[in-house]
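Subject: two folds for Thursday's group meeting

Dear M.,

Sorry for the delay on this. The cluster queue was jammed most of the week, so I only got both jobs back this morning. I'm pasting them in the order they finished. Each block is the input sequence followed by the predicted structure tokens. Could you check whether the formatting survives your parser before we put anything on slides? The first protein is the one we discussed after the seminar.
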Amino acid sequence: MTQADRAAEAVIFLHLPKAAGSTLNRLIEWEYPLFQMYSIDPVFFEWSWAHLQRLSKERLKRTRMFKGHMLFGLHAILPQPATYITVVREPVDRVISSFYFMRTYKLHPLYWRFKRENWSLEDFVRRSPRENVQCKIIAGAEYNKPCTAEICEKAKENLVRYFSVVGLFERFEESLALMKLRFGWKLQRYSSFNVTRTRPKKADIPRSTLDLIAEKNSLDISLYNCAANLFQTAVKTHAPEVGQITRELELARARTQTPLSSALFSICAAGRKALNRTYSSI
């Protein structure tokens, strides 16, 4: 795309829970002017989504990046052309990470319920309506209602039709490389954020629990396979460029991992995040 085309187009990042979204959000915030982004608040996301829909057409048109936990469909209310990006994650691993994040993050709406009722991972899988969430979000379906095969097919159709880049959590650097190619991002610094560290390894979880997660999230597994095919095709199409950019990103990550560089990057990233969230709320 030309620079003029990119300037006219809005980018919508659908942040799927526990799929490297926090890291990508922090990187995105270095690529756009702070007052040309709108961030859905991760805690007050219902209010933030409603606030976004009340913004003037003039402010919407000035905004080049919309990002956060929201359902597919924002493009329908924007006055400018728009494209989507997202990163999907292998569903069984995503569910495990999600549960242990919810159980340790005090601001999460389910934290106190988990603590009060002492939920296990298996309790979460059996009792929570949060199954196949990647399908629901990408299809624009209601989050707390059951997922259907029709919703899964709609999600696949949306990936093919509306998404410029479909990344994979498991191959995050290559996903970033595709985004850099598509949007002209610089990505000069790179570090990971909001990683769930207090969780067991997948190999340490009983096979019966893993099978239960896979059964409850079979539609997400089907969607993930579709996304992986799209991703692999894109990487193959741009193999030389993706390989070069991936190596550059690995070097950028290494430079940012020294204690001083990591601390400075984290502080600056936190400042940009706070400023953008404040602007997004007014």
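Second protein, same layout:
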Amino acid sequence: MYLHLGNDTIIRKDDIIGIFDLEGSTISRKTRDFLASAEKSGMIVNVSSELPKSFVLCRENDEFRIYICQLAPVTLIKRASQMNMSGE
């Protein structure tokens, strides 16, 4: 099963570790440091053409990847839940 993040980006649901609110979570210095380090390491993929609202932490083929997304975390979680309810 897959989750559409926007801008033609689709990820496997099984790869998702967490979906986070970008504004709320970056209040923490540790999260800001983590995202800065991830950006320097090339782990970040920006799939947002607008103001980003969330980030999705994934593990793909033994590598971590962070998707910066313009969709709200609630929207992404709702999409993932609807996929489970529809039997996909």
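Two things I noticed about the second structure. The first strand starts at residue 2 and ends at 6. The CA atoms of residues 75 and 81 lie 10 Å apart.

Cheers,
T.
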